[in-house]
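In response to reviewer comment 3 from the previous cycle, which asked for concrete evidence that the modeling workflow produces usable outputs, we include below a single protein chain processed end to end. The sequence was submitted unchanged, and the resulting structure tokens are shown without manual editing.
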Amino acid sequence: MARPTSPAKFSGMIETLQNRPVGDHLREWRQRRRLSQLDLALDAEISTRHLSFIETGRSQPSRDMVLRLADQLEIPQRERNVILVSAGFAPVFPERPLDHPGMAAARQAVELVLAAHEPWPALAVDRHWNLVAANRAVGALLAAEDQSLLQPPVNILRLSLHPRGLAPIIVNFADWRAHALERLHRQVAASADPALAALHAELSALPSPPGVARDVAHQDFGGVAVPLTLRTPMGELNFFSTVTVFGTPVDVTLTELAIESFFPADPQTAEALRRVQLPSH
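The workflow returned the following structure tokens.
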């Protein structure tokens, strides 16, 4: 299994990115979005020549121009900060951990959403799928043969796809694996995050649990959602999930936070979860 990249190595990656010319960043993001210079210039209401000069370093963009182009390219806030620094400007999007005093209201909002979802499971993850918070119903479902997978930071995707994690109790593992990897692949394409790319490579190389077919069965809710079926002491539990993100985030951390809420997909699952004795707060 691939080893997670160390914080020091990622710090080096960020420093390298910041030291690249701003034009290189913008050209790379334009190409990632499959836009021509003409397409982007028209969207940003600038001349193609001006954009070409920015990308080749013949013209230094203003702060407002960097932000305008970033808006058109739908560049994530974290990467916008990197591009601003490379252009010689200060970052404009604050980034604070959820336990920062200034993030108390955001943290409370997350916990309220999670608690309100009980007795159904719900959890919050960061941009790398590390568990940030979970409601009490999640604890009743998490189990892993390898306890190291449950040591913080708990990576939810690694836990679910690892053969010594939840994989052996996922009845429709082939479907769920394909769904999870495709979802992660889309995140990598959208964000160009090297940590997510490394996670995708690691999880793609994991073997399936014994007895699990590799073929995807394509059984879902009419293509709207891929169900998750777990084999538990309470019997088979069937779920579908929805993802919630903050609509007007004011911090990089919040733009990258996602709340995944699981709903019972049948009456038997709903009844089983209602009977679970949740631990006290």
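The radius of gyration is 22 Å. We consider this sufficient to address the reviewer's concern, and the full set will be provided in the supplementary archive.
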